[in-house]
């Protein structure tokens, strides 16, 4: 398969979309990014990388970090799902309060904000004040790159403006679903969202999931096959907030987006993918990025179906 040719075709077909959509601005530091950047990388299980655009440009991974924190929790607990949350799509925006109230502080899944905050709480109970360092080191290990770091300006900006996230954590605390200090958990959560990575680094970090939990290049088994199956299933059903069904319908792959404009996806047994374009659609997912992945699965005929 001529991947470079396919990526070039995709780039030219999505060109008219690159000026559509809107950069996330509810976190002021995110509004400052250059909205016109584009990058798309794929990495095969044998390590070969094919890419187009600004693939070394590091952007804010935001909710993509939820995959890594959730993986860490399953690994820690030796379980297939964390207690204290569900595994259903929310059908609601990523930061919705209404559903959480109805459902008595139990988040629908680990990939909406409330679920990710409970994940951080579970990690905090175990790793205490080192929780963020543990998450950071885990992502560095997965991406085989110790230079992966976070953006303090984004973390501070979110800490100063994360009113909805504070409302979510307080609501869950009122229902008894948060055990640690709200301040401590939210600091870690905001820092985790502010981690910056390139599309190339994200592809590398996702390769273990494309290979059932085991890194195909270094051979390390990060999680069990069963845990890997559960994470991928949740990505398919819950990876794109209230547009998860639409993404699955169009792209046909487990994926996860972040409001920074990145989307990661995997094709089991074959490759990991990452696309970056910061202008978002109305559901908070990269507009051109979603289209690029749809074109990729259409052109190659690869999907999980
Ligand atoms: N840090 C963001 C928030 O909690 C993450 C949202 C996202 O990427 O979906 O608001």
Topology:
Layout: H1 3-14, E1 39-44, E2 49-53, E3 59-60, H2 65-77, H3 98-102, H4 113-127, H5 131-143, E4 149-150, H6 152-161, H7 163-174, H8 182-193, E5 195-197, H9 199-210, H10 225-238, H11 244-251, E6 255-257, E7 262-267, E8 271-276, H12 287-300
Antiparallel strand pairs: 1-2, 1-8, 3-5, 4-5, 6-7, 7-8
Helix pairs in contact: 1-12, 2-4, 2-10, 4-7, 4-8, 5-8, 5-9, 6-8
What report would you give on this structure?
With 305 residues, the protein is an alpha+beta fold. 46% of the residues lie in helices and 11% in strands. It has 12 helices and 8 strands. The chain has a 5-stranded antiparallel sheet. β7 and β8 (271-276) form a beta hairpin. The longest helix is centred in the middle third of the chain and has 15 residues, at 113-127. It is globular. Bound molecules: glutamic acid (GLU).
């Amino acid at each position: 398969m001529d991947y470079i040719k396919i990526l070039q075709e995709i780039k030219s077909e999505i060109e008219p979309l690159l000026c559509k959509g809107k950069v996330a601005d509810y976190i002021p530091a995110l509004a400052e990014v250059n909205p016109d950047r584009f990058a798309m990388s794929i990495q095969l299980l044998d390590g070969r990388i094919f890419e187009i655009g600004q693939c070394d440009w590091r952007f804010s991974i935001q909710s993509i970090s939820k995959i890594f924190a959730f993986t860490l929790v399953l690994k820690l607990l030796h379980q297939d799902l964390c207690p204290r949350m569900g595994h259903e799509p929310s059908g609601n925006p990523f930061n919705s309060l209404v559903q959480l109230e109805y459902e008595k502080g139990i988040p629908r899944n680990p990939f909406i904000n409330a679920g990710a905050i409970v994940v951080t709480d579970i990690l905090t109970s175990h790793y205490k004040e080192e929780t963020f360092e543990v998450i950071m080191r885990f992502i560095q290990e997965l991406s085989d790159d110790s230079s992966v770091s976070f953006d303090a300006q984004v973390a501070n900006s979110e800490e100063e403006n994360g009113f909805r996230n504070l409302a979510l954590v307080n609501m869950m605390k009122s229902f008894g679903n948060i055990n640690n200090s709200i301040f401590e958990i939210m600091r870690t959560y905001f820092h985790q969202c502010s981690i910056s990575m390139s599309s190339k680094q994200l592809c590398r970090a996702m390769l273990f999931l494309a290979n059932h939990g085991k890194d195909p290049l270094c051979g390390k088994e990060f999680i069990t096959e069963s845990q890997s199956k559960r994470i991928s299933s949740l990505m398919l059903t819950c990876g794109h907030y209230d547009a998860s069904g639409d993404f699955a319908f169009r792209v046909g792959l487990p994926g996860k987006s972040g409001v920074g404009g990145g989307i990661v996806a995997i094709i089991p047994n074959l490759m990991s993918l990452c696309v970056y374009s910061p202008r978002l659609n109305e559901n908070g997912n990269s507009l051109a990025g979603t289209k690029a992945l749809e074109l990729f699965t259409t052109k190659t005929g690869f999907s999980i179906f």
